[in-house]
Write a structure and sequence with these properties.
The complex is a heterodimer of chains A (236) and B (240). With 236 residues, chain A is of the alpha/beta class. Chain A has helices at residues 45-52, 74-77, 96-106, 112-122, 138-150, 168-183, 195-201, 224-235, and strands at residues 5-16, 19-30, 34-38, 60-65, 68-69, 81-84, 156-160, 187-191, 204-209, 212-218. In chain B, helix 3 (62-93) runs parallel beside helix 6 and helix 8 runs antiparallel to helix 9 (213-237). With 240 residues, chain B is mainly α. The chains are: A alpha/beta (236), B mainly alpha (240).
Chain lengths: 236, 240
């Protein structure tokens, strides 16, 4: 595996009792790239992202992130990851500042107060710093979740259906944030059903179906209609 | 030599991160509880209700009340503990916060220790608030043996917190969590509860800690065994 490679999966299989969620996933992604994974519900996208996030162990196969074995060296991999899902991982009874302060302390960040101010500005929540998170709108909570995910300068962002449950305005704000992070050379893997935004942000696309990556290619030059045809051809 | 010193530095650095994460988790739990007072209120009200109900059920027989008082106190603490553990688990399930914590942990045992310490704090406060009421209703002078009782309560509550936190995390993602937690926690904590009840009763009756060495040893062994077991299996418990 070259030093340019951020993510390398070989023959990853995942069983849940009698169900096989992943059936031999092989995937390699270079540093700074953005990969959007599309696929129907039950294709195994979330399971794949959970394995990359060290939240689940593969039943077979190997997972390497930035050269580390994500199973055996999970404690070295975790600080490199920023994870955003449609659940925010935030505590409603704490303020935005307190939530970020908690996660910052967990990662042992230096100059934490400055960093919190910085990320709250990035997600445009600086004026709501000391407001309880449970009083935030869904869109604000998702933006704060982005702040949480990028707080510790992660090298790899894993985004699992980040646009779910957001209105059009909130989706656009979140999308612009993801574009900004990508432009700052952050490696991103995103699973989404949103073809328009998913295609817009990524360099590479993959279609996952029934636990396998059935298509992988560059996103350059593919528009939504073309991709819909391609998607239908693989998924039906 | 150099390799050994590098290993030592890595170990110290690991310990520092571990301690830092335990403190961050504990501070977060206590701050949330200070703001909402949900866990303490439910635990305290329940513990007081248990004591009141037993007080009425036993009636005016002062001698009988004195005999069962220690049992009533520990039953109240054990059942109140279940309420606290369920709410703690619920707090981590809302918005899937537990996943966020797991992503930040260097060593997942930090989560167990922080949760256990938080539970211990809640139980100690509930015990501190309930004991004077028990003393008043059951006509027992706890002040006379407060230091020795303190040791028994510390060890007993530590055991309840260890076993409770372990089972709370095991049942966190089960469908019938509210039923599963007491079904697992209460039977397993029976040896601890019995030893704590007898030790408390004997101290109230005027005996010393030395007279209770057997019960204290049982509580101590229980705490050590379950603490070690919890540290060994916790990584697998929170995995999926």
């Amino acid at each position: 595996m070259s030093t340019e490679t951020m993510v390398c999966l070989k023959g990853v299989i995942k069983h849940f009792d009698t169900i096989t969620a992943l059936r031999g996933i092989n995937l390699e992604l270079k540093r700074g790239c953005c990969l959007s994974i599309f696929g129907p519900n039950g294709a195994g996208k979330t399971t794949l992202l959970r394995i990359l996030a060290t939240l689940a162990r593969p039943s077979a196969g190997t997972v390497h992130i930035a050269g580390y074995d994500a199973v055996k060296e999970a404690e070295k991999v975790r600080p490199l990851l920023g994870v955003l899902s449609h659940r925010t991982f935030l505590y409603g009874h704490l303020t935005a500042y307190e939530n970020l302060q908690f996660y910052g302390r967990m990662f042992g960040l230096k100059k934490l107060a400055e960093r919190i101010t910085e990320v709250l500005h990035v997600v445009d929540l600086a004026t709501y710093t000391h407001q309880l998170v449970r009083t935030y709108s869904r869109g604000m909570q998702q933006r704060l979740a982005i702040a949480r995910a990028i707080l510790h300068y992660p090298q790899l962002l894993l985004l699992d259906e980040p646009y779910t449950g957001l209105d059009k305005h909130a989706v656009n704000r979140l999308h612009n944030l993801i574009l900004r992070l990508h432009s700052e050379s952050c490696t991103i893997i995103m699973s989404t059903h949103d073809l328009h935004h998913g295609l817009d942000v990524c360099d590479e696309i993959a279609i996952q179906y029934r636990g396998k990556i059935v298509y992988r290619g560059l996103s350059l030059g593919i528009d939504v209609q073309e991709f819909e045809q391609l998607y239908s051809a693989y998924v039906g | 030599m150099c390799k050994n010193s590098n290993n030592f530095i890595a170990l110290m650095s690991g310990s520092k991160i571990f301690l830092q994460q335990v403190l961050a988790l504990l501070a977060k739990d206590l701050k949330t509880e200070w703001r909402t007072r949900e866990i303490f209120t439910s635990m305290f009200v329940f513990a007081v209700l248990v004591v009141v109900v037993f007080n009425f059920a036993i009636g005016a027989d002062t001698e009988l009340i004195r005999q069962v008082a220690s049992g009533v106190i520990w039953i109240a603490l054990s059942f109140a503990s279940v309420l606290g553990l369920q709410r703690t688990g619920q707090m981590e399930s809302e918005e899937d916060s537990l996943q966020g914590v797991l992503l930040a942990l260097h060593d997942r045992s930090a989560l167990f220790i922080a949760k256990m310490l938080a539970q211990m704090v809640y139980l100690l406060i509930v015990a501190l608030c309930t004991l004077p009421l028990c003393g008043m209703w059951f006509h027992i002078d706890f002040i006379a043996c407060i230091g020795e009782l303190g040791i028994v309560f510390m060890l007993g509550i530590l055991g309840l917190s260890i076993v409770g936190t372990l089972f709370a995390m095991i049942t966190l993602h089960t469908r019938a969590r509210e039923v599963m937690l007491p079904m697992l926690f209460l039977p397993v904590s029976v040896p601890l509860t019995i030893a704590s009840v007898y030790a408390t009763a004997q101290l109230i009756a005027g005996m010393t800690l030395r007279d209770n060495a057997g019960y204290l040893s049982l509580i101590g062994v229980f705490d050590i065994v379950f603490f070690t077991l919890a540290l060994l299996v916790f990584d697998y418990i929170v995995e999926e």
